[in-house]
Amino acid sequence: MSTASTRAPEGRYGRSSDQRADRTLKVAGAVLGVLLLALVGYFGYHYVGGNKISGELIAFSISDDAVKVHLEVRKDAGASGYCTVRSRAEDGTEVGRKDFRFSGSDTRIDKVVTLRTTARGTSAELLGCHAD
Questions:
Q1: Share of the chain residues as helix, strand and coil, in percent rounded to the nearest 5
Q2: Which has the closest alpha carbon to 100: 79, 118, 114, 120?
Q3: Does 18 score more than 80 pLDDT?
Q4: Residue 21 counted as domain residue
Q5: Residue 100: pLDDT above 70?
């Protein structure tokens, strides 16, 4: 038996340049992945760090034409802004929405506000707080 029959045919199973191309693609993919991660981190940091006002809905109580909402707002001293609250009926339709304004030098505001509704609401949601 000759040694030629045990070798793979030339060019049949790829070339060494394919290995270089694979390595180049892996490096390019890694660099793009790191850049994407850095971009997401940058925007996430500025979104969270840039918020001067944040709020939390602590509790709510419902009557036929209003929803009383207990809000806790944290903000920078001297910052002013607003928090948007809404209420929905049992079928999911929105029955009330209002912006509540906050300002002053306090960094924490604990307040009960009243949201008037067009029908009986079954829920209260804090949609978000934004600085002016």
A1: 30, 40, 30
A2: 114
A3: no
A4: yes
A5: yes
CA distance 67 to 56: 16
| Secondary structure (H, E, C), 2-46 | CHHHHCCCCCCCCCHHHHHHHHHHHHHHHHHHHHHHHHHHHHHHH
pLDDT confidence bin for 12, thresholds 50/70/90:
low
- How many residues make up the chain in this entry? 132
The torsion angles phi and psi of 4, rounded to 5 degrees, stand at: -65, -30
User: In this structure, are 112 and 72 located in the same domain?
Assistant: yes
Are both 74 and 45 inside the same structural domain? no
On whether both 63 and 85 belong to a single domain, the answer is yes
Q: What is the pLDDT of residue 44?
A: 82
Mean predicted confidence (pLDDT) in 24-52? 86
pTM above 0.70, yes or no: no
Domain that holds residue 85: 52-131
Same domain, 59 and 82: yes
Q: Tell me the backbone φ, ψ of residue 30, rounded to 5 degrees.
A: -65, -45
